[in-house]
Design a protein that fits this description.
The chain is an alpha/beta fold. Helices cover about 50% and strands about 15% of the residues. The two termini are about 50 Å apart.
Length: about 650
């Protein structure tokens, strides 16, 4: 009775964990792959940036010199910007001892020849670290424009002024690190290019969010800004040792949507491209991290909400009260997320946690209503259908093993078979056959149990054993390998005893492999069995059969050897099983004495030479065959070398 109660409680914990996991991963997937939920989450994050970004003083090192409507009104044409004016402006700024310069004007078309020449001379002669906006056909330039720009802007001054815009809503949220030009050249973006010229090289990740700089107050912009036409009249001290960005600040040109648009949908929500670069430059210059976010924050917040929903669903209260409590908790999630951003600079999600709480509460309510009935049905069905005494004993010791649903996990498998036993058994009477098989299988099963394995089934004289199911065994591969060696020793001893008594018996061949499979109860409603299914199981069975081809008694896969730790062995080959395209390494496990023998050491040298395609491999294997003509792997590879096959890749023509 006590064990049954414990089983019920343990199953409740297991299903509760599964419920929380489903209520965590489900909303995360929904928020990621359902566009309207993803867009809503993004908008809420943008709104926090627009309204709750902590205030910061104006950046002390960056100045924005704006080409305003008032500036353009001074010229006979608006576009392109008057090149003579730009030449004079850049010359003036250089005389003010600025620290660095970024010209965010795309010089892709000719204007007046004299003015074009003047600006080109100034650009070529600048001594201050400078970058200039640059692009090619990928930005929509015609071949003629791209050629003009390439000739006009010196290569050392070029920088990619691209902005990393969200493909769904066109909002700039991420830093742009670099772009690949049509000729294959990697052109860094403005901010990293300018910092590199200042001796501070930095390569921002492609998915690094921009750490938008807060304003000191509602009326003061985050960067000092002066109209370009007023620069000659302003004090030189205002520009000395500053990084100056020259670009447009117009109502209809080069403005881009930013997170600020969530709270200010008008002109305030979009800012000039030059100012976007200013935010990026300030972030990299100051080493400012963006608000903490990412998979870890998302998973933690959603998991906590799912746990809260699980507790809520288990409350013995009315539906309306539960609904009120749930809405209150969801409101608390939103308040906490906004507070975390404002005071801890953490961008916690709100949509996935809200969905997780609602889903977990609903699922927990459904589960609690059916829990008792399902538990009783489960236990009765499980105990009535388990036929294996070994498995039943394991279940009685640990009732948590009573899980009907198959699980996918990594296992190690052993297949054994007695060569030619079908023919041998036909010459025996029923009693003699039963006696020899009972003694043989009893010894085999005892060894499997000694190594902690589970005997899945007998198929005639064949034995199929599992490791790492139903018990968890971290060293399951090593257990299987050592078990195979002991099974081989027993089978050889059994064979010799039978032959000494004048009774026929065959060699036992063993295949060992490790890999994933679905393990659990399979079958019909009235009859099922605990077993493992999958390609890895088939591979283990086929390795057993290939011993005949290899001339060995044990064939152990490289997957098992890699997980078995230190284990004496010798390689057989890279085997491509019939119906497969990729080879698997196959080895023969050895005892310590066998591995240290001179013959095995010489075999390894010959094998390595063969694998490397060396011509001396044939002579080495010939000498091995002279010493031990009965050695299966030696005969295998010598025959292959005689046929002109090179390397250690062996393609099987049959199973």
């Amino acid at each position: 009775m006590g064990s049954t109660v414990r089983a019920v409680r343990l199953k409740a914990w297991v299903l509760g964990a599964a419920l929380v996991l489903a209520a965590t991963l489900g909303p995360i997937a929904m928020g990621r792959f359902l566009p309207f939920l993803n867009a809503f989450e993004t908008w809420v994050a943008d709104y926090r940036i627009a309204t709750l970004r902590p205030p910061a003083p104006q950046h002390p090192d960056i100045v924005f010199v704006a080409l305003t409507e008032e500036t353009l009104a001074r010229f006979p044409y608006r576009s392109p910007v008057d090149r003579a004016f730009l030449a004079g402006l850049l010359g003036t700024l250089e005389q003010r001892d600025i620290r660095a310069l970024f010209l965010d004007v795309l010089l892709d078309s000719p204007t007046e020849p004299d003015k074009d020449a003047a600006l080109k001379r100034v650009l070529a002669g600048l001594t201050v670290p400078t970058v200039v906006s640059y692009g090619d056909e990928a930005e929509g330039l015609t071949p003629k424009q791209a050629a003009f720009l390439r000739d006009y802007v010196p290569a050392p001054l070029r920088a990619a002024a691209n902005l990393n815009k969200d493909p769904y809503d066109g909002t700039v949220r991420l830093l742009f690190p670099a772009k690949r030009l049509a000729d294959g050249t990697l052109l860094p973006a403005v901010a990293p290019a300018l910092l590199a010229k200042l001796g501070r090289p930095v390569v921002p990740p492609e998915d690094l969010p921009i750490a938008w700089r807060g304003q000191p107050d509602a009326r003061t912009p985050p960067f000092r800004q002066f109209p370009a036409h007023a620069v000659p009249l302003l004090p030189a001290a205002w520009f000395k040792d500053k990084i100056v960005i020259v670009g447009a600040d117009l109502t209809d040109t080069d403005r881009h949507a930013t997170p600020f648009r969530a709270a200010f949908p008008g002109l305030e929500g979009s800012i000039p491209g030059a100012l976007v670069h200013a935010h990026a430059l300030a972030q990299l210059l100051d080493g400012q991290d963006p608000p903490a976010q990412g998979p870890g924050v998302l998973l933690a917040a959603t998991l906590l909400a799912a746990l809260a929903g699980l507790l809520l669903g288990r409350l013995e209260v009315g539906v309306w009260l539960r609904l009120l409590i749930g809405l209150t908790v969801i409101a608390g999630i939103w308040v906490a997320a906004f507070a975390l951003f404002r005071y801890q600079d953490v961008m916690a999600p709100v949509i996935a946690p809200s969905l997780a709480l609602a889903m977990a509460s609903w699922m927990a309510d459904l589960y609690s209503r059916r829990q008792e009935r399902e538990q009783k049905k489960f236990i009765q069905a499980a105990f009535s259908k388990y036929l294996s005494p070994v498995l039943l004993d394991d279940i009685l010791k640990d009732p948590s093993k009573l899980q009907l649903d198959p699980k996918r996990r990594e296992l190690s498998y052993i297949f054994t078979d007695v060569a030619g036993f079908t023919t041998i058994s036909e010459s025996m009477d029923a009693l003699s056959l039963a006696d020899v098989m009972n003694r043989y299988l009893d010894g085999m099963v005892t060894i499997v149990f000694r190594h902690g394995g589970t005997v899945d089934k007998f198929i005639g004289d064949a034995v199929f054993a599992l490791f790492n199911a139903p018990r968890d065994q971290e060293d399951h591969a090593r257990r299987a390998a050592l078990c195979a060696l002991e099974l081989d020793a027993f089978a050889q001893s059994f064979l010799q005893a039978e032959q000494a008594a004048g009774r026929a018996f065959g060699i036992t061949r063993i295949g060992v492999h490790t890999g994933p499979a679905s393990v659990g109860n399979f079958g019909a409603e009235a009859r099922f069995e605990y077993t493992a299914l999958g390609d890895s199981v088939n591979t283990a069975a086929r390795l057993e059969g290939l011993n005949k081809y290899f001339g060995t008694r044990i064939a152990l896969s490289g997957a098992t050897l890699a997980r078995a730790g230190e284990l004496a062995h010798r390689p057989i080959g890279q085997i491509v099983l019939k119906g497969k395209t990729e080879p698997i390494p196959v080895h023969e496990p050895l005892t310590a004495g066998q591995a240290d023998s001179g013959f095995v050491q010489r075999y390894r040298l010959a094998y390595d030479a063969m694998a490397a395609g060396e011509t001396q491999a044939l002579a080495l294997f010939e000498r091995l065959a002279q010493d031990r003509p009965e050695d299966g792997p030696t005969r295998l590879h010598l025959d292959r070398l005689y046929r002109g096959e090179l390397g250690d890749r062996v393609i099987m023509a049959e199973k």
